[in-house]
Each structure stands twice: as C-alpha cells, then as structure tokens.
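Need residues for this backbone.
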C-alpha cells in the first residue's frame, strides 16, 4: 500500500511537472520556433493553435504550409481525425529538416492524444500516440432550487457547459423542462471521466435520471457499441427505446466525418469550393442505408459523383448518396427508413472510399445534413439489446457502490475514511 502510494505520488509529481511544462509552452506566442537535436539532424518545429473562427487550413497556413502541403496533410489525417470536432486551442506542429522540407506533423486536441504523420519514402505514415490515463466514475446529484434550471444546477456542480448541455439534451426527450420542472425535482447523473493527473480529458455520460411531481420519473442508460463511432452508441430507456423517436436514420452504421459541409479545399483539385454535403468514412463495401422512407428518383452514374442515388421523401426533402461501389435500388423504387440501398465505394472524383451524403430541404436548397436529427434505430433489438441490459447492470452496480460509499463516509473517522475512499475508488475505476 505504502509503496503504491509512493509510486502514485511520484507519478503525480511527474504529471504536475509535465503540466507546468505544457503551460509554459502554451504561454509562448504562436507560431513558435524551436530547435531540436534529433539523430544528428537539426529539425525546426513550428507550432500553432486553432483560434476562434479558424479552420485547419488557416492554422496550417500560419505555420508555413502552402495550400498543397496543407491539403496533403488534411487528406492523410481525414480517416483518423474527426475534423467536425475541431475546436479553439487544438494544436498543430510541423517538423522541418534543414532544407525546409516538412518531415513530420503532429495534431492534438487534448493533453494526451497525438495524431502523428511521418514522411516515409515520399508518403505520409500515420501513427497515434497516447499518454496513460485512467477512467474514473463520478456521481453528480441534487435537487433543483427555486428559479434554477437543471442546466444551472449542473454548472453549479462544476460540470462543463458541454457536459451539462449533453445531459439536458438527453433528458429533454423525456422531460418538458419549460412546462414541468419544479423546485425540489431530483436529478442524478453517472459520469465516466478520463483523467490525466487532475485534468479531465473526456467525459462520458453513462446514466441520467430526473424525477419530479410534474415531470414524472425518468432514467436513461448509455448503450456503448463495440464499434468505434457507432451510430448506435447513444442513450436509451431501460427497455432499449431511443430517446429521440423520430429523426432521419444514419446512412451508415458508424459516423466519422472526414470532411464537413461548407467552404473547404477540394481534396482532389485543391480549389476552394462549397461542399454540398458531408464526407463520411466508410470502408469499401460497407452498407449504405436510406435515411428516411421515400421514392428513389435517381440511381445512376456520373464522372464526379460516381454511382449515385437520390431519394425523395414524403416532405419533399431529398437525400443524396455519392461514390457508391454499387447501387441496390432502381429509379422508381419505394424504400423504407433504414433500407439497404448500396455499398460504400470510390467511384467518381475521389481520393479514396467514402460516402458523400447530401441533403436538400423541401424547398430544394442544400442544407448541412448534420443539422438534421439522426437516430440509429427507434428501439434496440437482438444482440444490441442484450448488450444494453448487461451495461445497465454495470451502471446499477456502480450506482449502488457509490451509495455504499456515501453511507460508509458518514460513519468512519477521518483516518479510516481515506483508506475506504481509496478502496472504493479502486472498485469504481473502469
Ligand atoms: Zn463530398
């Protein structure tokens, strides 16, 4: 125990020291230039951070990359980095050799995870570097005070705006806060926090509950799919019902946005162009699904979109699916939401296999499909429902353990409390 403590302490010290170092680095104005001695070769690095209103292109420009090099790097990273999550403070570093050639590139969105590119024989090789972190669970609970919203209460508890927003939006499907929230309503949230020293790197909401005289009693549980970025990973009721019952279905079973809607550099031509949809990562051959019921109004080929399908929905909106490997539905076919319509491919003008998904509203104007509400399914079934039940059992046992800890804490003296806390923390570690 003592030994472990010493190790903990020294680790903590290292963490604190490295944090201090980090802060010093970030305090220097960007772009910064540093000299590193690496295997007898002098390497110059230039770093920059994303500023408000900037895209990755602007940041790369600031650290000395021309459009072509920037495009090259963005293409090399687009399968690994979810660019739709780009935020202020995300950091890029370019490594140059003495001839001024870029040899490596780093991109990180937090203190611990770094996407790395290295030039080998003229092409970029990707790797991912991750510092060790621990997952810990934490319960937040309380009652609404007079003239206070759930949002206020969660922020008062020290949660970030984005986590508080997540929790409220999960419960919003069950609770009409505007009409039915009252002082004295109870809430409880179970969080899973990924920690690096004292820093919280990531927060996952595992469970929420809300209860009140007018609002009724509600509980939601996170279902976590085994597949990374699965569209099924979301909150459901104990019975497996999605919290949003209506919405578009996702066109793929996993969602990773390689390229967003709006102005961008075209990944093939390098020209600035308006991207009328989103590019979703998808291995060649993955199933593509209709996002809503409707009539197939286009199923054909052209040299830009490749194999393409368009479906007109009942409200006169239209969904578009480009670059398909093959098409499983003909013009004039009626499809239901979630029907299989084709497979992901790389036909047309593309750099690699992906699905371009576009959406026109009922007035015929292109809109960002990510602004539509999307669900994977109205209700989980089969293996996924079984898995949800297992995950619910785990969540309930974590909640019960936390209750036990609360009771224990009330009874033990200060000296022993620490030990029990440690034991319970150990159990709670996920
Ligand atoms: Zn596209």
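Answer:
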């Amino acid at each position: 125990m003592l030994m472990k403590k010493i190790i903990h302490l020294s680790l903590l010290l290292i963490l604190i020291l490295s944090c201090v170092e980090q802060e010093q680095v970030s305090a220097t104005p960007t772009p910064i230039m540093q000299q590193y001695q690496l295997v007898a070769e002098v390497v110059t690095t230039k770093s920059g951070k994303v500023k408000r209103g900037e895209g990755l292109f602007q940041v790369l420009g600031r650290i000395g990359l021309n459009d072509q090099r920037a495009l090259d790097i963005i293409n090399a990273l687009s399968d690994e980095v979810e660019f739709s999550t780009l935020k202020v403070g995300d950091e890029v570093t370019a490594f140059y050799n003495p001839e001024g050639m870029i040899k490596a590139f780093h991109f990180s969105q937090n203190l611990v995870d770094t996407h790395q590119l290295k030039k080998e024989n003229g092409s970029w090789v990707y790797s991912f570097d991750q510092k060790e972190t621990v997952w810990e669970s934490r319960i937040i609970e309380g009652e609404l005070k007079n003239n206070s919203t759930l949002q206020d209460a969660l922020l008062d508890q020290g949660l970030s705006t984005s986590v508080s927003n997540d929790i409220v939006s999960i419960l919003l499907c069950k609770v009409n806060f505007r009409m039915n929230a009252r002082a004295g309503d109870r809430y409880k949230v179970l969080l899973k926090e990924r920690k690096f020293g004292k820093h919280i790197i990531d927060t996952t909401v595992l469970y929420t509950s809300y209860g009140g005289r007018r609002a009724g009693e509600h509980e939601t549980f996170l279902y976590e799919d085994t597949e990374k970025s699965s569209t099924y990973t979301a909150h459901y009721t104990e019975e497996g019902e999605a919290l949003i019952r209506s919405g578009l279905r996702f066109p793929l079973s996993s969602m990773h946005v390689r390229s967003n809607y709006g102005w961008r550099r075209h990944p093939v031509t390098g020209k600035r162009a308006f991207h009328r949809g989103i590019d979703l990562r998808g291995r060649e051959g993955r199933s593509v699904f209709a996002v809503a019921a409707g009539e197939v109004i286009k199923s054909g080929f052209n040299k830009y979109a490749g194999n393409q399908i368009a479906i007109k929905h009942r409200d006169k909106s239209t969904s578009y699916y480009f670059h398909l490997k093959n098409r499983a539905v003909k013009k004039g076919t009626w499809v239901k939401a979630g029907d299989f319509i084709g497979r992901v491919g790389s036909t047309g003008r593309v750099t690699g296999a992906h699905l371009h998904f576009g959406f026109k509203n009922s007035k015929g104007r292109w809109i960002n499909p990510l602004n539509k509400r999307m669900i994977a399914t109205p209700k989980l079934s089969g293996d996924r429902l079984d898995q949800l039940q297992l995950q619910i059992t785990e969540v309930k046992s974590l909640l019960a353990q936390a209750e036990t800890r609360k009771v224990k804490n009330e009874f033990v003296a200060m000296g022993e409390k620490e030990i029990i806390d440690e034991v319970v923390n150990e159990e709670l570690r996920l």
